[in-house]
Structures
1.
Amino acid sequence: MKRTSHFLIIVGIILTVTLGLTIDSSTTWALDSSLYELTDESSYLEGCYDPCDCLLMLYPTLQGTFLLTSISQGEDVSLFEVMEVDWQFIQEDETILVTGSGLYQIDSEQHRLTLDLLVGNAPVRQFDSGFVPLQSAFPGISIAIALNGFYCYDYVFDITALPAPVELSISSWGSLKSIFR
């Protein structure tokens, strides 16, 4: 029995140091940061919103990942840092890369995503959702961010994302075998 508890303590220390994993009071593993993947429902839109009248182009090929890291967890509001945005979409047979970072805020009724994004060769610009009602239960995220506040000609990322699966496996001889997403 002592050998097993020593093993668990050693594995906990290794995971804490190398992966930023922590052990909560119920001894379950919790990630300080979570890798998120965009789902097939994510898209990039460009064109006119009210009150303007022009064609709205939909690019449904948006895919990629980002890292969500907890900054503060309060009773009313939780704040997360969004890092390592790594997205891409296809526009007129060209793959457009999107990188950046920002903040995600959530409470029991609403949320807000603000990202500074480098889209293709354009300069870094800030995309913001404003505070909007929750559309899905956290940890899922479903939110649209716009460059110009969803007004007239705008550039919009419609984001639906879920935490990427994490798998830890222990070999039959009791050591950590593999860690992958």
Note: The mean pLDDT is 80.
2.
Amino acid sequence: MAARLADVIVTAPSERDEDLAGALGAEFDPAQLVELTLTVALASAFSRSAIAWGPPAPIPVTEVPTPRPGQSVT
């Protein structure tokens, strides 16, 4: 049920499916439906934003050697 709701929210949020609404109402209470809907909507928004902004710039890598007994890392 939750996966069907997520699919509707992500692909066609303006379309109303009465069968799905009835099944969701029977499975979840109103507070759970709000939480589920907001979670899916926010995840979708963050995902779309990440796609729109593109990949992040490369992060420089710092390598620190593992010290051996009696030695220091400098």
Note: Residues 2-52 form one domain.
3.
Amino acid sequence: MCTTPCKWCAADSLARAVNGIGTGILNAIVPVWATETAEHTSRGQFIAIEFTLNIFGVVVAYWLEYGLSYIDNGDSAFRWRFPIAFQIIPLLALLAIVWFFPESPRWLVKEGRDEEARYILHRLRGTTGEDAVRAEREFQDIRNIAELEKQESTKNSYLHMLFGVGSGELHTGRRVQLVVWLQILQEWVGIAGVTVYAPTIFRIAGFDTDKSQWISGLNNVFYMFATLVCVFTLDRIGRRWTLYWGAVGQGVAMFLAGAFSRLGQDARDRGDVGLANSYGAAAASFVFVFTSVFGATWLTVPWLYPAEIFPLQVRAKGNAWGVVGWSIGNGWLTLLCPVMFNAIGENTLHIFGAANFLSLVVVWALYPESNQRTLEEMDLLFASPSPWAWEAEKTFARLKAERPELVQAARKGEPDAEVGLAGKDTTDDSA
């Protein structure tokens, strides 16, 4: 029977609710702000660095909890009070420095504050020479697309976005479906099971409880360093190829981890402890491989893609839909994983392995490449009435050829005068 006073349970529930709302807001806003202030050539790198720091926080939290578990044999209230209080420190630091962050120039254009947007873009990109010209091009592209979206999109509520009502050729509903299901897929490739139930997986592989917890913490350290791979590769090979090689590596690792876990249990049942330990070590190694590959690939892209592909008018709302997808996938598997592990044991890992190879087909067919394209080009990329990625690419190429004045910031070579929707020179030489 619970002996905790009801008022403390209520306070704990309230605190968790506030924490959850705050985390949801940060998850929805931070990737959007980063993509809207970064250049299109390094947008992925910025988000990847963000997730390196994110997993660093996970590592700190895990080892802090692990270390505190040894105080009074884990019976001390300090074990859970201190980690909760410790979260206040980085939050206060964020509150102090956020006042110095520049506002998103794209949001400023949407709000009609063009001169502020131009000023911030020049401060971000440069104020002299070619840097100033590129900043001005980007500003004109933002204005052009903002005007185009006002004409195309008439209804921008969350419900209208979900069903694509009133979005015209912007096809907002399709984009919502893509980001929601990409986040759900991210959980089904296996990370939900490995993150939450890694100690269970290691116990299935033959390790005792204490060693399983220690190995899980070490796995998180490898996870953090693996995210650095994405920092240097995401903008080079693109979003689709990052997901491709990640799915293959993760799928193979999941199948092998499950197979070696089964072999280890069979060997232990036969009394061959030495062979069982060898198989267990192999299974644990492939869990490490999975986590490392995930950190280098699937960790970042499902969070970057929603922040990239939505129209300016609804970009923050679109990214929020991505958070909804993550919540569905994560919550679903958090509840389902213990049932699956209890019912089918290591075969749970085989299901995750199969989900990885299924994701290859889904990404290839439905997710067009967003790498090295400006945020303003995304409306052209999703203008096709067909959901297939190859049709999106064909329509994108055709529209860029037909209306070159709409998006010029990604263009190479020497600058010409900027042409807006009205067809007149809009370059401001005094900027």
Note: The CA atoms of residues 179 and 319 lie 8 Å apart.
4.
Amino acid sequence: MGNQLEQLRVQAIELRRAGKSRREIKEILRIGSNQTLNDALRGEPPPPWTRRPNAKDDVRSRARELRRQGMVYNEIAVKLGVSKSSVSLWVRNIPRSETLSYEESRQRQMAGVSAYWAAERERRELARVAVSQAAAGQIGQLSQREVLIAGAVAYWCEGAKNKPYRRNNRVDFINSDPQLVKLFLRFLETAGVSRNRLVFMISIHETADLVAAQRFWHQVIGYEDARFMPPLIKRHKPLTVRKNTGDDYHGCLRILVRRATVLYRQIEGWASAAMTSPATSGGPDLHEDRTGELATWRRQTRSGTEPTSC
């Protein structure tokens, strides 16, 4: 039995060295068990052709080369786009070619971190833009009803409101975001407010460029005949550290609506309805198209009469 196994072992090793695969050896020698084949080939290393190349062999070689050039783990990881732990595994037996001082090591580390974040910020910005664009695609074009809801809520956040001790029913909106300003102007147009009822005023710090701000807000409004009140200039306090400076600072635009009592009450109602829980609103179906009602109170507003629904 021992001689047969030894003879089988000699034949199996000869076939293996001749380039035969394990399956071919089993067929030639009529071996039915993998365990018998393992015993016959024990101690015989597999031929080089059986070793599949590692997908990162070239990256590993490059990492070892960079290590010999004196790079630290962070620098190699950033340059090759791999993890620091992988770099450590590949090059841990290669010492750096030079001994760096603490300051040199610190500078190299900072350079590696800066390079990493330069790429990471770009990646995160692309991800942010993708999410934002996908969300914008979900909204699409706003209907008149949706514009009324958005504009009323925006006003309730940024506009002047009645107080228990002061009720003047004034529509007075102010903001520094040009997109929000455009939305509010679209809201006013949807609500039937004519342009000749609008008055604008710029509120800006005295250290800013007033002429450039006026030009900027004229472009945002898009009305050639827009009426502007004298600007409100904010005095600079030397102890205040302001961050809203530079070419992107244009101050705030204030929009006042004349003869706005009815409009204020409507905004109050729209905002209240939008912020009320559907379970307790008790109102009409909010998904119903109310184009007819919208046209009715538009005519009533233009004529100066108060809508019958108020």
Note: The two ends are 108 Å apart (CA to CA).
